[in-house]
Amino acid sequence: MQPTLVDDPPAGNRWLHEIKYDGYRTQLAIGGGQVKAFTRNGHDWTNRYLGIVGAAAGIDCASALIDGEVCVQNEDGVTDFGYLQSAMIKEPWKLVFIAFDLLHLNGVDPSEEAARRAPRSSPLDLGRKQHQTHPHLE
Q1: Which of 103, 120, 100 is nearest to 61 (CA)?
Q2: Distance, CA of 118 to CA of 126 (rounded, Å)
Q3: CA angle 120-126-132, nearest 5°?
Q4: How far is CA 97 from CA 67, 78, 114, 124, in A?
Q5: At a CB cut-off of 8 Å and minimum separation 6, what does 98 contact?
Q6: What is the pLDDT of residues 58-98, one digit of tens each?
Q7: What pLDDT is recorded for position 64?
Q8: SS3 call for 130
């Protein structure tokens, strides 16, 4: 599901919000002793993200699929898409991967595992539990 840009957030306290980062949606696939980086359209961009891929190789797991955004942040910490395009060629060490979903870890969908172990709760409470950082990534 793609985020939708709106002028104002919805009213009420039963909504979860996430920051919109200006970058390239990327999935890191870890397994079989290697890491690959794929775009939203399934293109292999591993060679464009060698620093990120190298860092992900240090994650202690047999396999994982991590969804996120590759970005570059300006001096104020705000993502800058124009700068990202330039940095990919001229300053690749400035690329950062902002992970926002662990889709699979060692063959298991962590959200299904969390839902299975969680006590019966409201959808809002369950949503918060599913969006916590997984211990293997802390």
Answers
A1: 103
A2: 8
A3: 135
A4: 9, 14, 24, 27
A5: 21, 23, 68, 69, 70, 71
A6: 999 999 999 999 999 988 989 999 999 999 999 999 999 99
A7: 95
A8: helix
Tokens of 105: 């870890």
Q: With H, G, I as helix, E, B as strand and everything else as coil, classify residue 64.
A: strand
3-state helix, strand, coil in the chain (%, to 5): 30, 25, 45
Encoded tokens for 99: 């992970």
Q: Which of 59, 39, 58 is nearest to 49 (CA)?
A: 39
Tokens 């942040």 map to which residue?
73
Could you report the per-residue pLDDT of 18-28, keeping only the tens digit for each?
778 899 999 99
Encoding tokens for residue 80?
Answer: 């800058």
